[in-house]
Design a protein that fits this description.
Length: 436
């Protein structure tokens, strides 16, 4: 184990230094430490995820996942995740129960989880704004998903289309309810038409959020907004005809996604009484929802146009590591996370593969308890005995159950105590499997 500790000193990940060695017939056949793949720059040289300053602002909302789509979505800030991660008890609970939204290679929004979160210091931050009014603040080398794939914030330009994850349930947003009911003075039946739901649903959520008081609504007779005949010979009767003309000019298709279904008119300044054509934007229900709310329908991915990029100075920033996909939804944007490091066990196995060394029947000595991914890899290459020194704190209860199935299939784990003795740890897994 002292050899493994010495190997760990070469690790290049600044989150944890881990060393591993494979032994067969009392001879070391391979060593490994956690760090980047051969030929790539290391984290301690250029930062996480191959880029320096790959972080998000403290108040960036990380979109949560609920198994029941009708449940309230739990969004937590990046700072909240990092703070909770410092406490072992809350970290264990989050690993077992908390789920976030990640995007699969097929473009589907699926449940994922955070397996590490930390503060990354004070760094320069850039704010991105889209035509739907969505904003996010990131360091310049953070990666954002666009219509051309993953790219750094520094490579974005006005006009670039970036991926957003949004909602079709406007009525669940307190901000939208207040803006429509209090600021725009719309009636519940008018709000129901915008949100695509019943009036009773609007009334229920108005009551839930306590949105009940507003200034008296001005008189609005049949001739409100009557402007006479415009230059095109059309007789405009306020909102209704302005909306019809805006839709006609846009060929009744969404300006963002080009959909022709459920097309609505969005007021750019969010003032429902300002019906000037220049203030009206024709978009579909899903894109309209994106313009007003961060409570995202977990299946909706829409590409919106970047309209602004500006520096907002230096701020405290944070970073996350996620699985099974290495991305997350932050402030509605699809963002990348830190995935540079190969684990020590993986590096040791790959070293054997590179030089044609058989690992069947070998033993593994590691400074940290192997994670589920590494445990499976060790089992697959014929390694059945694993000795480790420290617990891996980011392993969830579900992952431990999966490792327990490997133990049931013949794998054995031993923990090295402070006295240097090897205690059988396999019983812990077997008992956990029995209790489940």
């Amino acid at each position: 184990m002292r050899v493994a500790e010495a190997i760990a000193e070469n690790a290049t990940c600044d989150r944890a230094k881990v060393g591993a060695l494979l032994v067969r017939e009392n001879r070391i056949i391979a060593t490994g430490f956690n760090g980047s793949s051969e030929g790539l720059a290391h984290c301690d040289d250029v930062g996480h995820d191959m880029e320096d300053g790959h972080c998000v602002a403290a108040d960036t909302l990380i979109s949560g996942w609920q198994d029941n789509p009708n449940q309230t979505h739990r969004h937590r800030t990046a700072e909240w995740w990092a703070t909770k991660w410092e406490n072992p008890r809350s970290r264990s609970a989050l690993l077992d129960r908390a789920r976030i939204r990640v995007v699969s290679p097929q473009g589907l929004v699926i449940p994922g989880r955070v397996i590490d979160a930390w503060a990354s210091g004070v760094k320069a931050v850039v704010e991105i704004e889209t035509s739907l009014g969505r904003t996010v603040r990131l360091t310049s080398d953070h990666k954002v998903f666009s219509d051309k794939g993953w790219g750094k914030v520094s490579s974005l330009r006005e006009g670039t289309k970036v991926a957003l994850n949004g909602t079709s349930k406007l009525y669940q947003s307190e901000y939208w309810l207040r803006s429509q009911y209090v600021d725009s003075l719309l009636e519940p039946h008018e709000m129901a038409d915008l949100a695509g739901c019943g009036r009773s649903t609007i009334n229920r959520y108005l009551k839930r959020f306590g949105v009940t008081k507003r200034p008296p609504k001005p008189w609005s007779g049949w001739n409100k907004g009557l402007t006479g005949v415009d230059s095109g010979g059309k007789f405009l009767h306020g909102r209704s005809l302005a909306v019809k003309e805006a839709k006609a000019l846009a060929d009744y298709s969404c300006r963002v996604c080009r959909s022709t279904k459920n097309v609505q008119v969005h007021h750019k300044d969010r003032d429902g009484l300002n019906n000037d054509l220049g203030n009206l934007d024709v978009i579909c229900t899903a894109c309209h929802a994106l313009a007003h709310s961060v409570n995202a329908n977990r299946g909706a991915i829409v590409f919106d146009t970047v309209t602004g990029l500006r520096s907002v100075g230096k701020q405290q920033v944070f970073d996350l590591t996620t699985e099974p996909e290495h991305n997350f939804i932050g402030d509605g944007f699809v963002l990348h996370n830190c995935v540079r490091t190969l684990h020590a066990e993986e590096n040791a196995i790959l070293q054997c593969a590179k030089y044609g060394i058989s690992t069947h029947g070998a033993e593994c000595y590691c400074t940290y308890q192997p994670c589920l991914r590494c445990s499976r890899a060790l089992f697959q290459v014929g390694i059945r005995l694993v000795y480790f020194q420290k617990h891996y704190s980011s392993m969830s209860h579900e992952d431990k159950i999966r490792v327990a199935h490997l133990v049931k299939a013949g794998m054995q784990f031993f923990i090295i105590t402070v006295d240097g003795d090897a205690e059988d740890y396999s019983d812990y897994y077997i008992n956990m499997l029995r209790d489940s």
